[in-house]
Amino acid sequence: MLSLLIFVVVLSILIVIHELGHFVLAKRVGVKVEVFSLGFGAKLFGLKHKGTEYTLRLFPLGGYVKLAGDSWDEYHGKPWEYLTKSPKQRAKILVAGSAFNYILAFICLWFVFYIGYPMLTPKIGEVLKDMPAQAAGLQKDDKILAIDNQPLVYWDDLQKIIQSKGGVTVSLSVLRNGENIKMPVPVEKKEITTIWGNKQTIGLIGVAPSGDTVKVRHGFIKSFFLSVQKTLELTYITVKGIVWLILRKISLKESVTGPVGIFFIAKGAISMGISAILHMMAVLSLSLSIFNILPFPILDGGHVLLLGIEKIKGRAFIKKFDQIWNRVGLTFIVIVGLLVFYNDLVRFGVFDKISDWFKK
Predict the structure, then answer these.
(1) Superfamily for 118-215?
(2) Domain residue spans in the chain?
(3) pTM (2 decimals)?
(4) Which member of 19, 53, 188, 310 is catalytic?
C-alpha cells in the first residue's frame, strides 16, 4: 500500500510541476488561466482567486491547467486568450512545462548528493564458480583494498578497473581476517551486448558484492556541481536512447517502461530510502521533460513545431488541420501506451501472478 501511495505521489508531483510551468508562463505573458486542477475526475473542492479556479479532484494522479481561448471552438479574440498571443509567447508557455520538469530533476539530484546516498563497498559477497577469482583463491567476505596499488573505496571503482583490464593479470590487495595479503588474479575477457545494442569486450574475475554499503555525502556547493554533471549525463543518455529508438538500434520492448514498470521501480526505491526515491524522481522528471518537447503531434514539442511553421508562414493553421494533427498524435500515443503497458505486464510477471492467484 505504501508503494502505491508513493507511486501516486511521485507521478502527481511530476505532472503538477509540469502544469505549473504552463501556469506561470501563461500568467507572465498575459494569458488568463481558467482552471488549475490537482487531479482528475469529480471536483472535491474549489477555490477561485484572481480569475483562476483552483480545484482538488477525485483522482489525485497528476493535474492540468485550462487556458482561456486555447482552442478554436472557445476562441473569441480577447487579448487575454491563448490564441491571441504571438507564436513566440505561446511557445514559451508550451516549453515551460518541460523546463520546470528539467529544473525539478536537477533539484532532486542536488538533494541526493547533499543528503547522502548508499554506495557498495568492495567486499566480496560471492565468488562465482569456474571463474578466475575462484582459481586465484579469493573468498567470500574478502575486502579488495587495491588493484595494482590503485586504492579502492567503492565496488563501482572495482568494476571500472577490472572491466578495463581484460586479458591481463592484476595484483589485488585483499583484507582477510585482519590480514592484508597480495594475490595475482588473471582477468578474463568477455564480449557483452550493451544497453545500446552494440558489442563490447570487458574484463571479469567472477565476484559479486556483499551488499554492504556506506553513505556518501557532499557539501552544498559541491552537490550543486555534481548535480549539474549528473543532469547533463542523464540528458545525453536519454536523448541518445530516443534517437537510437527512432533509428531502431534498440527495441521499444527492452528500453521503455510505463506506469506498471514505474510502480515496480518505485517499490524497489522505497526499500533503499529517500535518496533512491529522489533519484527515481529526477530520472522520471528529466525523461518527461525531454519526451514532452519532442516534435510529435499532441506533445508540447509538436505544438511548438507548428508554431515555428506558423511564424515562418505568417499565419495560423486552419482549424481542421489542427484537429487532424491532434487526432493523429492522440492515436499514436494511445497505441504506443497500450504496447508499453502490455509489455510491462509481461516483463514484470503480472500475468503469471494473476494466473497463480486464480489457481489458488
Answers:
(1) PDZ domain (2.30.42.10)
(2) 2-29+85-115+256-359, 118-215
(3) 0.82
(4) 19
